[in-house]
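Service request form, structural biology core

Requester: graduate student, group of Dr. S.
Request type: structure prediction, single chain
Budget code: on file
Notes: please return the result as C-alpha cells.

Sequence provided:
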Amino acid sequence: MEFVDEDDKSLVELLLIAQDNQLGEKKSAEEDCKALLEQVNAQEKELRNKRRWLLGLTTFEDQEADDDTDEDTDEDVKTSNAEFERFPTRL
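Core staff response, request fulfilled:
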C-alpha cells in the first residue's frame, strides 16, 4: 500500500491503533461479562439452596454429603430413630 504523504500514513496508523484498542476492549468486556455471569449463577444456586433449606427439602450440600457416604450404618439408623422418639405422636 502506497501512501500519498506522511499525514495519510499517520492517519492509517492511528486508525489501526484505534481498531486494536477496540478489539482489546471487546475482549475485556467479554471477560467481564463471563465473570459476572459466573457470579450471578453462583448467587442463584445459593438462593435456591437457601429456599430448599427453608422448605425443609434436601439441599445441594446434603446431596453431595449423601453421595460421599455409603449405606447407613446401624449407628446412623439408631440416631435417626432416636430423633423421632423424642417427639410425641399425639398432642
